[in-house]
Amino acid sequence: MKAAKLLGRLGGLVQASDEVDKQRLKRLCKVIKELKHKQKGLEKELKEATDKERRKRLKRSIEVIRVQRKKGVETYRAMKQARAAAKSKSQPKPEGQTAG
Amino acid sequence: MRRYLLPIALAALAYAFWLSASFKEVAAGVALFVFGMFCMDEGFRTFGGDTLERVLAASTDRLWKSLGFGIAATTLMQSSSLVSVITISFLSAGLIGLAQGVGIIFGANLGTTTGAWIVAGFGLKVNIAAYALPLLVFGVVLLTQKSKSLRGLGWILAGLGFLFLGIHYMKEGFAGYADSIDLTAYAVPGIGGLLLFTLIGMVATVVMQSSHATLVLVITALGAGQITYENGLALAIGSNVGTTITAIIGSLNASIGGKRLAGAHLIFNLTTGLIALLFIQPLVAAVDWISNGLGIGAQDYTLRLAVFHTLFNLIGVALMTPLIGRLVRFLESRLKERKPLRDGPRYLSDASLELPQIALHALVQETRHLFRNAYTLIAHGLSLRRSDIASGRDLSELVRNPGRTIDLDVDEQYDLTVKDIYSANVAFLTRAQARAPAELGERYQALWRANLDVVGAIKATKHLRKNLLRYMRSGNSHIRREYNRLRVRVGEVLRTIHRLHAEEEGTVTLLSLDDVKVEILQADKRIRETVDRLIRDGAITPQMATSLMNDSVYATEIMQRLLAMTEALYSATSTEKDEQLVDLSLRPEELQALAERLNTDALTEHERGGPHEGGQATR
Predict the structure, then answer these.
(1) Are B315 and B323 in contact (CB under 8 A)?
(2) Euclidean distance between CA atoms B348 and B357, whole angstroms
(3) What mean pLDDT do residues B598-609 have?
(4) What is the overall mean pLDDT for chain A?
(5) Could you give the angle at which helices B50-59 and B356-381 cross, rounded to 10 degrees?
(6) Cβ B33 vs Cβ B216: under 8 Å
(7) Across the interface, do B579 and A27 touch by the CB < 8 Å criterion?
(8) What is the pLDDT of residues B54-109, one digit of tens each?
(9) Euclidean distance between CA atoms B335 and B82, whole angstroms
(10) Min Cα separation A74/chain B (Å)
(11) Which carries the bigger pLDDT value, residue B47 or residue B200?
């Protein structure tokens, strides 16, 4: 009984940690989308801009956002993979299943 | 004369102690009681900060919640003075509005009446010293612990112990008097007695700086039969009014909000005091009716006094609460914030220093105030209008049409609008940090850096402005173009940072600081190449070239300082790590790589096409 209670608590903790990761992924996804929206806005301005200096600034801003988004997407994928790997490790193998 | 007041008072007390052992006991009881309140103050301050801020934020968005907070906080802490100080500090720091502050003060007046109930209902009826001693022992034991919470609890328990011990000695002292003299022989009946003892109550409260102590003294004297019931009621009314004098004295160094709150406190207590005096007979009848209903004995004058104290404060709250809106408007119209030519700190006050978290918040607000003034100075120093920066319009186009330069004496404006705030921030920070727990140290350091950076940016603007005014309207189009570029670069950074301060500091807005960092890295390399090219082409004179190089350094310094200030302010204000900011913002090596790539792309584009802007230099 005691062991079952402890396992139950441990399961709760694991679930809570999983929930935190899930929320973090959601927030990261949201920010990446906001950055994409901002990038689109700047690209539209770039199409209309004629001044050389302004075009340079807009290109720089767009490039910064592009690199930030790329970094964000890589982080997102890595976190998702890590989460999936952690989930498959914690799930017990069904009975009777053997390798090969 | 003031110098001799203390020695005279001490001498008078010593003589009185020699004359009367009972007086000595009563005075010792008062001293222990007041010391107990200091200890409890100390204990509750330990638990202040984040907890209080959260509780206050959640409990003061409605009037009934403000009242409830005032009642609960004062009942728990048994100190309306502490609640007043906390309320003034929150008000000064801009955390609550005046209406909420007034609601808390009204509630505190009601909460303070619970003290009378505790003393009359419990303190006089039991051997209170028996409860005091264990509390003292546990309190002192906890005071020796390392944990801040346990020490805080220790202060509270020890404070309670001293409170109870004080009541015990007051009881014993007055009981001693009963053996030797009958103070009720000096009772003054009728209206004369009412007014005289109200005045005595006020004076006693001002001297002891505590209405609680006065009330306990009155209740113990009444319990020992040393004063009449009628005179006891008048003393209670007097103590209620006298406590506002303490609040007024405390508000002298407070912000305008603190002064208005003290004004509200005075008006409330004067009103309730007047009502109590004018309607004393009906009130006494009401007290009798309520007491009979509660089963309080006809001779139990101490509990009846407690009922009276609660009743007239309750009437005051009931009458004044619907008028809070009018009261706030009245106070705001009578106590106006003077707008001096010379700007000074708005959010700092001695009251804010009482709680480290509140002091930090006040300092953050004041640093933002400093930045707002600096922003104006820097913008005007570059002859850029704040409205143009805030508008989002293309600054390159705006600077191309020269327009008028903005007249500005940077030193004079610095003196009028920045220096006093900066000096006050530094002084306040030093005092606040000395009292703050270690975990807030980094945030205070961040604010220190933010203040230094703001002023550093202003100094750099002053240096830049000298040649800027000369060359931004120069006949030489090359030097004019380069100086206007400097204006645009700094203007764009001002725009980004102003947006950050004006809007919510969302992650995406904070990430735009990476753009500023890349711009700074690019500009350093670009200016060298530009100056080289312009000199080779004979487009500018060597004097112009050296001015441009030096002023580019100043422009970069302004941007770096503003960036550093923003990051420092962010680190001082955020209590939780923004994970998305950490995940997405670029590391220094990434910023460097991006800057180099952009420079290479720009150079390639330049080599591929686009006319050179050549020509001989003109002075």
Answers:
(1) no
(2) 13
(3) 69
(4) 80
(5) 80
(6) yes
(7) yes
(8) 666 666 667 888 888 888 888 877 777 777 777 877 777 677 788 888 999 899 88
(9) 24
(10) 10
(11) B200
User: What secondary structure does DSSP assign to B406-422, as a single string?
Assistant: PP--HHHHHHHHTHHHH
Residues of A with CB under 8 A from a CB of B: 24, 27-28, 31-32, 34-35, 38, 49, 51-54, 56-57, 59-61, 63-65, 67-69, 71-72, 75
User: Which residues in B have their CB inside 8 Å of a CB on A?
Assistant: 394, 396-397, 485, 488, 492, 506-508, 511-512, 514-515, 518-519, 522, 579-580, 583-586, 590, 594, 597-598, 602, 610
Tell me which amino acid residue B246 is: T
- B454, pLDDT greater than 90: yes
Say what the pLDDT of residue B610 is. 45
Whether ipTM exceeds 0.90 = no
Query: Which one of 2.60.40, 1.25.40, 3.40.50, 1.20.58 gives the CATH number of domain B355-601?
Result: 1.20.58
Closest by alpha carbon to B78, among B144, B145, B134, B159? B159
The tally of CA atoms less than 13 A away on the side-chain side of residue B267 is 17
Q: pLDDT category, B403, cuts 50, 70, 90?
A: low
What is chain A's alpha carbon radius of gyration, rounded to the nearest angstrom?
22
Q: What is the pLDDT of residue B351?
A: 81
CB pairs below 8 Å between A and B: how many? 69
Among A23, A31, A48, the residue to mutate for chain B (most B Cβ within 10 A): A31
- Rounded to the nearest angstrom, the minimum Cα separation between A60 and chain B is 7
Say if pTM beats, i.e. exceeds, 0.80.
no
The pLDDT assigned to B449 comes to 94
The tally of CA atoms less than 13 A away on the side-chain side of residue B292 is 6
Separation between Cα atoms, residue B22 and residue B177, nearest integer Å = 6
| Alpha helix positions (H), B324-440 | 324-334, 356-381, 386-391, 395-400, 410-417, 419-435
B22-55: pLDDT as tens digits: 888 888 988 888 888 788 777 876 665 556 656 6
- Ranges of CATH 1.20.58 domains, chain B: 355-601
Choosing among B481, B505, B508, which should be mutated to test the A contact, i.e. which has the most A CBs within 10 A? B508
Contact: A31, B584; criterion CB under 8 Å: yes
The per-residue pLDDT of chain B, averaged, comes to 84
Q: Which two tokens stand for residue B3?
A: 């110098």
